[in-house]
Amino acid sequence: MSRNKKYQTNQRGKGTTLAGQADRHVLYEKAVQCVEAEIDMVDETFQSIRGRTARILREDFCGTANTSCEWVQRRDNNQAYAVDLDKKVLRWGEKHNISKLNDDAAGRIHLLNDDVLTVDIPPVDIVLAMNFSYQIFRRWKKSPNMMTSLTFGTSLDTIL
Ligand SMILES: C[S@@+](CC[C@H](N)C(=O)[O-])C[C@H]1O[C@@H](n2cnc3c(N)ncnc32)[C@H](O)[C@@H]1O
Predict the structure, then answer these.
(1) CA–centroid distance, residue 132 to ligand 1 (Å)
(2) What burial letters (b/e) apply to 45-59, b meaning 16+ CB within 10 Å?
């Protein structure tokens, strides 16, 4: 069967097959993430390097902002800046993840539909990019924007 034909057949099954009914963001989070373990690691690493507790996290390529949700739930004064280019995935995260937080925790997540290369964020303790890599930016070293964005978004104490 040609690839095109296969695609059309799959599209017809959409909504009726188990795969067609699945929500890809749910599957992604279950297959790829374990935000509790990720944030344990981030917290412990920051504490061991800086000798203090981190408070403000910038989550680049945040997708559904699942990691930021875990961060703001850890401590009442934790804040997260969650950045992603894709409006749809951010909306999904608002509906399925952020909406499950209490109002106080939800208010400590700043969701930004923006490019990590150019976004303007105040200094943070940690810049996190889970399951995605800055290496995709082939002209990373030549990109003054990336350096500028990270420089403005960091302080001398920030860990990337
Ligand atoms: C693999 S997914 C998210 C991974 C998620 N951080 C995790 O922990 O599993 C990568 C995300 O990066 C976003 N993305 C790609 N390039 C970007 C850019 N330049 N600025 C902001 N977001 C970007 C995509 O929209 C996508 O939602």
Answers:
(1) 6
(2) ebeeeeeeebebbbb
Pocket lining: 34 vs ligand 1, CB cutoff 6 Å:
no
Cβ of residue 69 lying under 6 Å from some atom of ligand 1: no
Provide the 10 A C-beta neighbour count for residue 148: 13
Q: Tens of pLDDT along 54-95?
A: 999 999 999 999 999 999 999 999 999 999 999 999 999 999
Of all protein residues, the one whose alpha carbon is nearest to atom 22 of ligand 1 is: 84
Hey, what domains does the chain have and what are their CATH numbers?
21-159 (3.40.50.150)
Taking Cα atoms as reference points, which of 44, 45, 77 lies closest to residue 160?
A: 45
| Alpha carbon nearest to ligand 1 atom 3, residue | 63
